[in-house]
Design brief:
The chain is an alpha+beta fold. Helix content is 29%, strand content 13%. The chain is globular.
Length: 280
C-alpha cells in the first residue's frame, strides 16, 4: 500500500531546459531501436543515497547519481564521489554568465537550474570530488550540513578543472511519449544507462511518501524536482514501474528510493539518459 505522512518540505530546484535548446535524442542510440528490452537493475552500481536537505541542488544530485552509476556499470567506476554541489554551482555560474553583460556579476543564488547546464558544465570542466571540495568522501550528515553552508559559494581556483577522471561526456533526451517513452526508458536501463526525470514533488503524495507505487501527480502540476531511475520492473498487471533514487536521505521513502508509476514518467517534462563516459 502507498501511504504518506506529513513531513518537512525538502529541497527541489529543477528547472526545465529552455525551449529551442538542441539536445541529442535518445533514438540516436542503437539500443533505443532494438524493440522490447528486459527489465534491468542498476542499483548495485549507484552511489549511496545523498541528502540535499533544503538546498535546491536536485539537478546536480540526480546527474551525478546517473553518471556514477553508468560509469560503474561500464566497468570504469569513479574512485571518489563527485561533489553534486559543484555540478549545481557550475551550472548556475553558466546561467549567470549567459545573462550577464557588464559590471560585476551578481552573487549566486540558490534558485535551481536545468539539467542541460549541469551536463554542459561537466563536459567542459569536469567535477571535483566531495572530499576535495567539502572534506567528506561521501553522503553523510556532515556533507549535508556543508551543502547548506556553501550552496552559493563562488567557485575556487581548480575546483571545476580538478581532474579529467571526473570529466563526463554525453547525455541524450527522450523525446517520445506514451508507451514508446516507457519502452525507451526500459531500453536505456537494459543498456546500462540510468535516466533522470523531472517530477512534481511539492505535494504530500511525494513529500510524505513511505512505500508502494507512487501515482502520477495531479493534472496540471509543474515539475520542480529531478531524480534518477535505476531499475525497471513489470508488475503482474503488465504495468512497468521504476525504482528511483531520490536525494532526500535514507530516512525518506523506502530507504531513499521510491517506486514510480509509468504515469510519473509520462508526466515528466525532462527525461535524459545518462549515457556518460569518462573523458580519456
Amino acid at each position: 500500500m502507498n501511504t504518506t505522512r506529513k513531513s518537512a518540505t525538502h529541497g527541489t530546484g529543477y528547472r526545465p531546459v529552455p525551449a529551442g535548446v538542441r539536445e541529442d535524442p535518445w533514438h540516436l542510440h542503437p539500443m533505443a531501436r532494438l524493440g522490447a528490452s528486459p527489465d534491468a537493475d542498476l542499483t548495485p552500481f549507484a552511489p549511496p543515497v545523498d541528502d540535499q536537505d533544503g538546498v535546491g541542488q536536485c539537478t546536480g544530485q540526480a546527474v551525478i547519481c546517473g553518471a556514477f552509476t553508468a560509469l560503474g556499470k561500464a566497468g570504469t567506476p569513479l574512485a571518489q564521489y563527485p561533489n553534486p554541489q559543484t555540478a549545481y554551482r557550475m551550472a548556475r555560474c553558466l546561467a549567470r554568465a549567459y545573462e550577464w553583460s557588464s559590471g560585476n556579476p551578481p552573487a549566486l543564488q540558490d534558485t535551481g537550474t536545468d539539467p542541460n547546464l549541469v551536463y554542459l558544465g561537466l563536459n567542459k570542466w569536469g567535477c571535483a570530488s566531495a572530499k576535495d571540495v567539502l572534506g567528506f568522501g561521501g553522503p553523510c550528515p556532515e556533507l549535508t550540513a556543508a551543502y547548506a553552508q556553501h550552496s552559493c559559494d563562488e567557485p575556487t581556483l581548480g575546483e571545476f578543472e580538478f581532474s579529467d577522471d571526473m570529466k563526463l561526456l554525453g547525455q541524450q533526451v527522450v523525446t517520445s511519449s506514451g508507451q514508446q517513452r516507457v519502452d525507451d526508458a526500459r531500453a536505456a536501463l537494459a543498456a546500462g544507462f540510468p535516466f533522470t526525470m523531472s517530477v512534481y514533488a511539492s505535494d504530500d503524495r511525494f513529500q510524505g511518501y513511505t512505500d508502494g507505487v507512487m501515482p502520477a501527480a495531479p493534472a496540471g502540476s509543474a515539475c520542480n524536482h529531478l531524480v534518477c531511475a535505476l531499475k525497471s520492473t513489470t508488475l503482474a498487471t503488465g504495468e512497468t514501474v521504476f525504482l528511483v533514487q531520490n536525494s532526500w536521505s535514507k530516512g525518506w521513502g523506502m530507504g531513499g528510493f521510491f517506486l514510480a508509476s509509468s504515469g510519473i514518467l509520462l508526466q515528466s517534462d525532462g527525461v535524459h539518459v545518462c549515457s556518460l563516459r569518462r573523458a580519456a
